[in-house]
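2 proteins. here.
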Amino acid sequence: MKDFVGPIDYANELLFHNGTIYFALISGLLYTAILKKKGYAQFFISKLKFVVLPYLFFTLFYSIFDDKSQDFFVLHSSLKNYLNVLPRNLIYGKAMFVFWYISVLFFLYLVTPLLDYLLNIKKWGNLLIAFVIALPLLVRREEVMELYNGDFLSFHNMIYFTGAYVAGMYIASNLEQSLAWIRKNKVFLMVLVVVTSIAIVFIKLNKIDRIGVFSVYSTLFYIQKIVLSVLVLLFFKNLGDKQPKWLQPIAKDAFAIYFLHVFFMGIFIVYLGNLKYFVIIAKFNSLLIGSFYLVFSILFSMLTVWLFRKIFGKYSRMIVGS
């Protein structure tokens, strides 16, 4: 987690640092609510077709760029160099830095039947599920750059995000009852978000984190993001038919956006990076440029998905994920 230098940085870090927890929780929720009834065989087949194959495609594509270069989009000097880095990129998710989560995602898919079994144990199931959800409080997750600078699969991160995944599965196992509990306790949950956010800022400013193998950062962010996730879930549930229509196509293309958005952000940085030195907007650089990157990386990602759908039809999802 980087140092705070202004209110925009505070807001960005508090809302989005460790934001992969949102994705993990939603994945667990969708499994129980939608995918479970299709059976394990169909579940694994769908993940092979719509997650593994797009990952292979994008790894093959992104690996043509030399990640050791100081500049963006520098091609490898030879086919031999490309083939040398390919196995490493496939195994460790090194083709693009956001791919670190793919190994975690594969782990979550593999343990889904076990977690589903625990969820359905009548006598001890709830206790075991509570243990799995709470275990990340004691586990320090490795940060993105730690993973990107080394060649290893993070068992810590697998455990850390399993907690959020199981939380989503548990919520969806009795969705209306879960939402009723969240609604009843929403004031307490909002206070908890505020308290953990203040604690995160305090700890960062005072450079407090590690207590032995224990990470205060990881614990506080885990609590904060889990609680934020359920509050956002309640918010959209309360909106009902008034949910913004423009979010639907973004949600539909979400996985492809995950694969594509950093590529377009890299292009914007190459050609528009000097805007940060534009004096007139200097005070608002982070907000303006960050908003631009966010909006247009999503738009260009969705445009790419549209083109792939036009060319490949239903097979587009097996190539780019949507």
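next one coming up
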Amino acid sequence: MSTLFRNTRLISHLGTAIAFSMVLMASLNAKASITTDDPLSVTPSQQLSTVNTQYHARWALGNETLTERQRHTVFLELLSDTAITDVINVDDVSAKDLFFEQTTTFWQYTRPIENGKRVEQAALKLELFPAKPGEFTLPSINITLGRGDNKIYIPTQPLKITVNALPEAAKGKIASPKVTANQTVSDVEITEGGAVTRSIFLNVTDLPGQFISELPFLNQIEGVEIRTGNSQTTTQSFRADMTGTRSTDIHYRFVNKGQYTLPELSFQWWNTTKNKVEEISLPAIKVMVNSAPPLPLDQRIDLWTSNVKQWLVGQRKNLILGLLLLIGLWRLRFKFSCLWKAFNVQIQTAIHSSSVKRLITLFWVAIGTKKRSRRALYQWLSHRGIYDLNHYPTLKNGVHTNKQGHWRLKRSMVVWVLTNEIRQEWRAKYRLKPINSA
């Protein structure tokens, strides 16, 4: 009984194996026939080209009217007959005189009706800023669909656009529907030698921060060093709103104490909503600069010591030469002493000589007061031993005596007489004398 059961089980397993082998052979034959004989088979490259014909990429404008230096919304649209489920990537968009700002990386998926047929659409939002008016072309951009070996490249068709010009009054100015400015200052009361930082914030609607121009040239302030510091730009986007900000730091360094005024800053901009030029200004700021407090005693001593050391190092050559000169003068001090005594004797002799006294008398008679001139003339006559003007006939006409017995000098006459005497003495000194008197 057990032997019969085992034989029956063996026959059952053998039948199952034969049936499986037949099914496997049939499937292999079917695949071979498809590969070799089926004219409708598709290669991978043929499959890629077939899929590419399912997609279409294009530019779309949010507004048909474009103006220079204004924000305009454009879309990159990808259309398909079937659902778009793969990852989408886009190359960088760039064109001459056209600036593109991508504020989001999300694609918007919709199902619009095109030519009476519902299609699948994915759209990427971009912000366009034309730099100048004229005719331009939105470039062809490759949109990549999928990843790895299954990537598909869909090029967009170029689109010609026309950019209108702003009015003449808007040239050289920021064009925006709204511009605001504010400022902060680090301190308004400092000590001399210190600096304050004035931060200017310029906020512009519908314009990225990197497109906001730098601050205009700043007027100089007497006694103040002005430098432009760090300048940063930021752009904030929320849904359809965009605001760019440029912050600029201006550093003012005050050398001397006193009260200073940081000047008012004014900016002109073009209001695109009202189509007119408007001005925005920041008020002036007053800064008080106080005297620097004295340094502590130990710091002053250290500073003085440091200055002395620097001076000694800078003047070491002159100090060495001066020291050598002093040593030489010390060794020759006795000789210089003798020379000084001899020179002093000569000076005293010259002062008490008749010629020098006559010159002194002439000086005081010419420019001295009446009393001082009479006194000088009297001393000169006393030095020569003349007490009666009758003994000095050349000078008698230059001196008159009043009723009180006081002298009244005729200065021009006295000066001429004294000058003539000096001239005669010098001539007599250098007059040639005969060698042989006989």
